[in-house]
Amino acid sequence: MSEEKIIEAERLKREKDGLDVRADIYRYAVDGFDTIDSGDFMRFKWWGVYQQRPNEGHFMMRIKVPGGRLNNEQFRAITELTTQYGRGFSDITTRQTIQLHWLEIQQFPDIFARLEGVGLTSAGACGDIARNVTSSPAAGFDPDELVDTRPVTDAIQDFFHLNKNFSDLPRKYKIAVEGSPIQSTVPQINDASLVAYRRQSDGVVGYHFFVGGGLSLQPHIAKQLDIFVPADEIEKIVDVQRAISECYRDASQLRKKRTRARLKYLMAEWGPEKFTEEVRKKLDWSPDAAAPGFEFSDETFRDHVGIHEQKQEGLYWIGLCILAGRWTDAQMNVVADVAQKYGNGDIRLTNVQNCLIPNIPAANLEPAKAELAAAGFAWEVPTIRRGAQSCTGIEFCNLALTETKLRIKDVISHLEMVTPEPYERGIKINMNGCPNSCAQHHVGDIGLQGCMATMGDGSKVEAFDIHVGGDLGKDATFTKAIHRKVPAHLVKYALANVIQNFQATRENNERFAA
Ligand code: SF4
């Protein structure tokens, strides 16, 4: 690639590795916001830090939580930061991370120290690097799991942590580890994912590898490599992940255009056979071929909310609905207290922006529920509420066209009033503030994509394109638009019509996707 053709993002990355901006953050914390180099604003992302709207000196920060697993001390540390620096609220994201807002540059040395003091990091939470590794939020206690994903999730997280061999990838890189036949980590729309399967020939449980999923303007479903590795061969599993990542890192054709830089475009160019061949070339051992008979389940609605028996006899988890993932520090403190008092202190975050309190003995269930209910938490809620997801939106996101967090609350409250439960199978609503699909609107039963509409008098208003019929699993398909540029204040009425019409005409538990 000739020097003059290097795009700006690639130039900035070559000039200085994103992870190296940490030292500059400490300097800026002393010298002040006005001294920040413009290129370093982009590099801040490698430490999970973004400028937030309205760009008046505040930042948002994503804290990595591999597999959504936090112990009590870690959760309390985040809660204290939420109170002290984050104006009293935080957001659970669709990658099981926690996002803080309203941070200022001088606060970061203290924030880094306090996170690292409890074994947390924001390194790699954003930027062209391996993001938070997601996995089944009920790993280790899910009665349905084929394998506990925690060892592999941690090994992959450790492999990429501060690893300068992989800190300059063409673009973001999302990895998921799925341990249950019923998906909860959306492996088909991650860049690279591992999906557990019991090989029928010998009963060995291992992982299959999927590559090239992703949404945004051009959604792709990941394709399967012809590789299977037993789940207890963790070093080999990480080695396959290394080889996949090297294929991505070294694909120079992806670095010519930001909009064509995701791993999905390499999979589209190579196809799964060539991709498998290239991965095998990078291994000094020979993995087994994919196990025959695998297919994704067609049961794809999993949100973990409610009271559930764990696989450990006599223990339960309580799954709390945190609509759109936003909660206050007061609510977080209640969750921390209940987890400590009635469980073993642990807290889990889900990909549907909800939260679980595990390891509660039967005798503790009622008092735990009473304290949670008194604080306003709910778990017996309609599927339309507990399955709803929304992105950050215009409140803080510089790319947003529309508000999302408050709006989805209004939409869901209206739909609960006018559309009857049960739906037999949950209706998932995914709301995004722009086409980027951080809340995955392509795979919701209903996907809302933020846009602007021009009214009759020429004024411009926030609006949404309404899409329906997305699904993952065996018959994965993306949503299709049925209404364009619906003014935001009318969206809840339009959706009520869509759902009522669907309920009146559906046959045999038919899905939106059918
Ligand atoms: Fe921002 Fe768009 Fe992502 Fe929402 S979908 S967080 S508006 S980039």
From the alpha carbons, calculate the radius of gyration and give it in angstroms.
22 Å
| Spatial shape | globular
Continuous helix count: 13
Order of the strands making up the biggest sheet: 1-2-5-4-13
Please give the alpha-carbon distance between the first and last residues.
Answer: 46 Å
Segments where pLDDT lies below 50 for 5+ residues? none
Which range best describes the helical content: under 10%, 10-25%, 25-40%, 40-55%, 55-70% or over 70%? Answer: 25-40%
Profile the largest sheet.
5 strands, antiparallel
DSSP, total strands = 20
The mean pLDDT is 94
List the SSEs and their pairings.
Elements: H1 8-15, H2 21-31, H3 38-43, E1 49-51, E2 59-63, E3 69-70, H4 72-84, E4 89-92, E5 98-103, H5 108-117, E6 134-135, H6 150-160, E7 175-178, E8 192-198, E9 205-211, E10 223-230, H7 234-249, H8 263-281, E11 306-309, E12 315-320, E13 326-328, H9 329-342, E14 347-349, E15 355-361, H10 362-374, H11 383-386, E16 389-390, H12 405-418, E17 429-432, E18 446-454, E19 460-468, E20 480-487, H13 491-505
Parallel strand pairs: 6-7, 7-8, 16-17, 17-18
Antiparallel strand pairs: 1-2, 2-5, 3-14, 4-5, 4-13, 8-9, 9-10, 11-12, 12-15, 14-15, 18-19, 19-20
Helix pairs in contact: 4-9, 6-7, 7-8, 9-10, 12-13
